[in-house]
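Input chain follows. Return structure tokens only.
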Amino acid sequence: MDHFPLIISGNRRQNPSVHSASRYNFKLAKWCKFSSLVNITKEIVSNNSTNAAVKNVAKVLIAAADQSIPKISEKQMKVWWNLIADCREAHERQEKLGIDFAVTQL
């Protein structure tokens, strides 16, 4: 056998997690409340450019959704590239300290 397992252990700082965007749980939405909160008036869309009108309508819809539709938060995902950086950092510390890890067979 020309490959041996490498076992690394030690104290590491916590890895930051990636927070994914929350989504709305439409099954639990209070649609009557949502409808009452959505008040798109002529003033919101008139006398504006198309982009400004779309932004104004989106703001109204998002505000109503935030107040009437609960959100589902996603699980936090571990950031794999930080794990690589942690391994590289541990290896550099090992070399600075002159530590030579012994290879053990399982």
